[in-house]
């Protein structure tokens, strides 16, 4: 797996740093579910659940798919993306190092005067 940037690491930590989002992850642990079903299971409104699922999706922890039911209703399904999160000093150092590498690559090679 490619090393995360500090921004990506912070987005991931922020995404899992909320009880309702942890509950959504737990609800999806058994497999994909459509939003209304998950909202009922969690006792949460659909708009609030969408907000949390969007945050999880931006962090790369869940993915959503829009599908049509047999009766033509659009259903938004979400499922977990396999992840294995380890947070330690090395994770933080690698994220900062990745930032430095990407910043250096964006600057391009130094112009040499001749």
Describe this structure in words.
- The structure is a single chain.
- The protein is an alpha+beta fold and 114 residues long.
- It contains five helices and three strands, in the order H-H-E-H-H-E-E-H.
- Strands 1-3-2 form a three-stranded antiparallel sheet.
- A hairpin with a 5-residue loop joins strand 2 (62-68) and strand 3 (74-80).
- Helix 1 packs antiparallel against helix 4 (46-58).
- The radius of gyration is 19 Å and the shape is elongated.
- The termini are far apart.
- The model has no long low-confidence stretch (mean pLDDT 90).
- In the sheet with the most strands, the strands line up as 1-3-2
The averaged pLDDT comes out at: 90
Proportion of residues in extended strands: 5-15%
Task: Return residue spans where pLDDT drops below 50 for at least 5 consecutive residues.
Answer: none
Largest sheet: 3 strands, antiparallel
Basic shape = elongated
Instruction: Write the element-wise H/E pattern from the N-terminal end onward.
Output: HHEHHEEH
Count of helical regions: 5
Please tell me how large the radius of gyration is: 19 Å
First CA to last CA: what distance?
41 Å
Short description:
With 114 residues, this protein is an alpha+beta fold. The chain is built from 5 helices and 3 strands; from the N terminus they run ααβααββα.
């Amino acid at each position: 797996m490619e090393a995360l940037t500090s921004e990506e690491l912070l987005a991931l930590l922020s995404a899992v740093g909320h009880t309702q989002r942890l509950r959504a992850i737990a609800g999806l642990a058994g497999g994909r579910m459509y939003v209304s079903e998950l909202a009922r299971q969690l006792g949460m409104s659909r708009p609030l659940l969408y907000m949390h699922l969007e945050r999880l999706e931006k962090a790369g922890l869940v993915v959503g798919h829009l599908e049509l039911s047999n009766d033509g209703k659009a259903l938004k399904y979400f499922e977990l993306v396999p992840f294995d999160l380890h947070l330690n000093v090395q994770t933080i150092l690698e994220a900062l190092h990745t930032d430095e590498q990407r910043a250096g690559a964006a600057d391009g090679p130094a112009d040499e005067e001749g």
